[in-house]
Amino acid sequence: MSKQFDVVVIGGGPGGYIAAIRAAQLGFNTACIDEWKNAKNGPAPGGTCTNVGCIPSKALLQSSEHFEHAGHSFAEHGIDVAGLSLNLGQMLARKETIIKQNNDGILYLFKKNKVTFFHGRGSFVKAGANGDGYEINVAGATEETITGKHIIVATGSNARALPGADFDEKLILSNTGALAIDEVPKKLGVIGAGVIGLEMGSVWRRLGSEVTVLEALPAFLGAVDDQIAKEASKLFAKQGLNIHLGVNIGAITPGKKDVTVEYTDNKGAAQKAVFDKLIVSIGRTPNTIGLNGDVVGLQLDERGFIAVDNNCKTNLPNVWAVGDVVRGPMLAHKAEEEGVAVAERIAGQHGHVNFNTIPWVIYTSPEIAWVGKTEQQLKAEGVAYKAGTFPFMANGRARALGDTSGMVKFLADAKSDEILGVHIVGPMASELISEAVVAMEFRASAEDIARICHAHPSLSEATKEAALAVDKRSLNF
């Protein structure tokens, strides 16, 4: 007889492992299945985020920023660096160490919370008779079948390839290959000026690559508030990121040691570029490969995502899905919140995810972070609003840090003063945005933030000043 569980989670990424831990905390006999492997074929839970996404990219972003500061900024602080050189092998090794620490941390959390972990690929076998659960096959070093009353699918997403240009992770790279380049390319091409493209382009530009970013859309960072996006574009251009908008990608031809990209620019002129490496970051597709959902009738939507309602319920009784494999933003923290909410719903509680207050971050330098509506969205919706901005160049802590680029922007309802959106480009934007998320969750007004005492000197004072600026009473600018 197969092992019986109250909850079986398929996928050990941010949505999956968090769902499993929360389910176990609520008293359910819980299992989590994950197939990621480390270099020694051992378990590496954490999904794309931990292994080839959020965590390793931030490690390389931090390392590459240190390298750039040592080469260009330290002298201003009275720190002279002689004979600066790059040890890329050590940089990549540090990244791998951080990945393993996170993998091991998740395995420890499973043990601590009494979650049974299975290393392998999970797939549906059949639905049990009389609604008594589902049989799930685990294909790993050994193969076995387990049974779960409730199933949570958290299988994540895969990088989308361009037609006719499959990833070989040597010349044509997804995020996986972009994080493992063993020699700094002289010329690096990036197709897609989204989060992954800009972050990876920033890493390798800092380390010495000449980076060209090709973006099909005519506007830069169309999902970002227009004023913030324009400011970011100027700053990236000043750094040396060559960003071309409105391009139409044609043939991509890999050679022995380089790859040729033919494209039409925004003026209709034919162009050709040769790169040592090419990163393709044009979005991600839901990962349902090998899930075998069709044998139990699991429904997908027209875009290939698992179809769910507002509570993450699928069309099948007691089968749920969370994270990148369902609708909504492909963000690790969104997946985590859905995972917690589903575990609580299984327990009869009222799990909740507010999509309107999910923060977004691009970890470039300067960082870009936002929550809520953009100014262009409010205009399109006909919402009367007030705006206030404050530049970091007027912030004492930013001056002391030596990073005064960017601004904080508040958008508030013209009548009620309720905060509708906050947008930041500048130092530590990823940390500063949390105050705005909390404020919006409590439906605070801009005046509420303006009247809160913020520590001096701190970057957070820019948030207070932007809130004051909504009422045209900024004190330091």
From TrEMBL:
Coiled coil: none annotated. Its EC number is 1.8.1.4. The active site is at H456. Keywords: Cytoplasm, FAD, Flavoprotein, NAD, Nucleotide-binding, Oxidoreductase, Redox-active center. Binds 1 FAD per subunit. Residues 358-467 form the Pyridine nucleotide-disulphide oxidoreductase dimerisation domain. It is found in: Cytoplasm. Its main location: cytoplasm. One of its GO terms (cellular component) is cytoplasm. One of its GO terms (molecular function) is dihydrolipoyl dehydrogenase (NADH) activity. Pfam families: Pyr_redox_2, Pyr_redox_dim. InterPro entries: Class-I_Pyr_Nuc-Dis_Oxidored (IPR050151), FAD/NAD-bd_sf (IPR036188), FAD/NAD-binding_dom (IPR023753), FAD/NAD-linked_Rdtase_dimer_sf (IPR016156), Lipoamide_DH (IPR006258), Pyr_nuc-diS_OxRdtase (IPR001100), Pyr_nucl-diS_OxRdtase_dimer (IPR004099). It comes from the Bacteria. It catalyses: N(6)-[(R)-dihydrolipoyl]-L-lysyl-[protein] + NAD(+) = N(6)-[(R)-lipoyl]-L-lysyl-[protein] + NADH + H(+). FAD binds at K58, G122, T155, G156, S157, D324, M330, L331, A332, H333. Disulfide bonds join C49-C54. Its cofactor is FAD. NAD(+) binds at G192, A193, G194, V195, I196, G197, L198, E199, E215, G283. One of its GO terms (biological process) is 2-oxoglutarate metabolic process. The active site is a redox-active disulfide bond. Belongs to the class-I pyridine nucleotide-disulfide oxidoreductase family. This is Dihydrolipoyl dehydrogenase.
